[in-house]
Amino acid sequence: MRGNESPRREALLPGSPLNPSIIAGSMAKVGFVSLGCPKNLVDSEVMMGLLKAGGHEVTGSQREAEIIVVNTCGFIESAKQESIDTILEMAQEKKQGSCRRLIVTGCMVERYRQEILDSLPEVDAVVGTNELPGILRACHDPEETSVPVPPAYEAREEYLYSDTDPRVLTTPHYSAYVKIAEGCDHPCSFCVIPQMRGRFRSRPLMSVLAEIRRLAAKGVKEINLVGQDTTMYGFDSGDRHGLAHLLREAEQVDGIHWVRFLYAYPNNIYGELLDAVRECSKACNYFDIPLQHASRNILKKMKRGGNRGSLSRLVERIRERVPGVVIRTTMIVGFPGETDEDFQELLEFAEELKFDRLGAFCFSDEEHAGSYHLENKVPEEIKLQRQKSLMELQSTISRQLNQRLVGQTVPVLLEGISKESDMLWQGRTEGQAPDIDGVVYVTDGVTPATRSGEIGEVCVEEAHEYDLVGTLVQ
Predict the structure, then answer these.
(1) Superfamily of domain covering 175-401
(2) Which of 66, 174, 279, 448 sits between 20 and 30 A of 287, alpha carbons compared?
(3) What's this model's pTM, rounded to 2 decimal places?
(4) Spatial CA neighbour of 369 closest among 346, 337, 336
(5) Residue 445 has pLDDT above 50, yes or no
């Protein structure tokens, strides 16, 4: 994804997220298509695990699927449109393939449950984000090939998967996502996640650790902790340093090399967390902090709080306390009321702070978000111009920062043959999160004994905007 993180679409096969995954049961074969973020991907993996534990099996042919499940993303307009397009595309399998039942799950269901049932007759059932076990009921294959009224399942606000729930990994064998919390309590005016995911609730520490140990026993080397706000982990149970404690406990798990946490809220980055990242050898020196803007005016309208000065001090404090840290952020351009002066302040902020990674997104006017009722909406063409300007600036910054690595030897998690060329291998540094950041292309040094999932030392020889090129030296 080179710079901007965007919703992703995956047809799922364990160990190979780019290929179709089909689950077959005693009554029907079931195929999954997962859209959106890694948090959604974990939901898909849990649903697949529930079905497999219920006696279903996996096959590789989507055309053979008798039931297709589309796990949707409904965060912004482009994600909603992709979800609708995918639902309609999969509906074609009811005409051309073996599919006789189409199930829609995920965030779109939480936002538009009744609209989906009323306007998409191709859909036979829906399952929301808080009712994942309902996938078993939804995939029950009655004698009829369709039902007159697609059933909706009663939501369970408190649902949260645990280490005892079965799960089918669709990521490469050496890497996995672990969702440590669900829901969100932040009042950001542009966001509808609290409406879709419910209130914030953390998984118990022992449950998360049990899952990490089980993944390590299966050969997973890299753990990516995810949640709507990972830095708030444990707050709801009275542990204000919950994420720091989790990192220190994960440090003791044999077999794990890297632990990275994603989606950090700026107000919750505390000193103990910085100390834990610095002191734990397995904790990646990587902070993913969606700052969203730098103008006090816009941040106030976003209900984010802070200003350019306070955010600058936060970034400086992280860099001071965690030497060599990589900081990724995202910004929203074109928020209602954003003036030329506001945007200029954002540009100056980005140029001053020189983030290692930065994604810029055009504001999406969501009808259920608080910002929907704000005045002074920014025209679409101005949003796009501002996005282009910010990303051009960041492109220059990224290239300059990557140039500093030329000549250095850095640890790289080797992933195997590159998706760009079968003549190259690729991997990632600890400062490159899977799917959203760049990669390291390995041009030489790979031998028949080299295995994906190993940590190798790569001498960096070239630097580009988002990617590095080098030679494996050991």
Answers:
(1) tm_1862 like domain (3.80.30.20)
(2) 174
(3) 0.92
(4) 336
(5) yes
